[in-house]
Design brief:
single chain; alpha/beta; Rossmann fold; 15 strands; EBNA-1 nuclear protein; DgcN-like_C; P-loop_NTPase
Amino acid sequence: MSIVEKTALVYCENQFGLMDGKTAAGLVRHSETYNIVGVIDSSLAGKDAGEQLDNQKNHIPIFANLQSALDNLPDIPDCYIYGKAPLDATISVAERALILEAMAKGMDIINGLHEFFSDDAEFSQMARRWGVKIQDIRKPPKLKDLHVFTGQIAKVNVPVIAILGTDCACGKMTTAVQLNKALNNLGIKSVLVATGQTAIMQGAAYGVSIDALVSQFVIGEIENAVVRAFERESPDIILVEGQSSVSHPAFMSSVGILKGCMPDGIILQHPPGRKFRCDFPHLSMPTIVSEIRLIEAISQSQVIAIALSHENLTKTEVQKTIKSYEDRLLLPTTDVLTYGCAKLIRALYNLFPTLGGQNKRNSQIPPLLTTG
């Protein structure tokens, strides 16, 4: 039986295509849960969301405000998604008014912030009044449902690959989603384990938003998600979405991921054109070499490939960076949004020759482009 996607309008005022708009961008690029019918960002009103993100039309319009969206869409969307992920994670008075207005129009509210709308007395009252639901994606499971590390990860006998990064909001989730789709399209059963709110909104069946958990349970929840995916899906490979970076002084997420999933290999996402860490303009970005050394120093796994974010880079600069990294680091390097996942899949085949069973052949992989 096919699953009917709910229609959704994504709020991302002044941030669509920027770092704090990563939730909206992720949903516009891919969602198994929602049919995104529009984005709200007055600074880009009238533009096509796909063209704005990836220079390719996807016919998802960007509206100036909620009323403009409702005036132009054929039907009122089922859901209103708060699509920004700011560091302070609180909403403004104007944003609050829009959420109340969306409720009055009969739209369910989907929230990815640490500020839980369902705990807000006014929001809860209005949700009951208008018969709508509030879903706080980052709200952790109840204590009785949380898990500590057990060591059961040792029984997972298929490759587990973590997609880590050198910073926040640098494309880890996008690469994980694209690689997961590419593998499944080749007949290799791949399951994605989510660790952040956007991948959960996109429809990942396994995982939890780990930055909302008490630290005692982070590693155990990741282990539990991987083990459940292994037991229930009988996959050929499991991909684990990364968060932040091992070297980032503000976050511990990547260390918990490394410990919880004990990966057999790591794909490292890096934005070469970024000079300072996301949201921390006084902190310089690490080098790709320093991040690889740190990851391999604290885990038993190795970086097997590099995926690039092309932000702030021309196509020529991306090509030069790919060649430089491959020559210098001897690691396959690509930009999945430009060149696809062929190099990453070949790296997986080289490391795990029986991936997907004896009948899988390297010839199934799409031919490599000259650079990507």
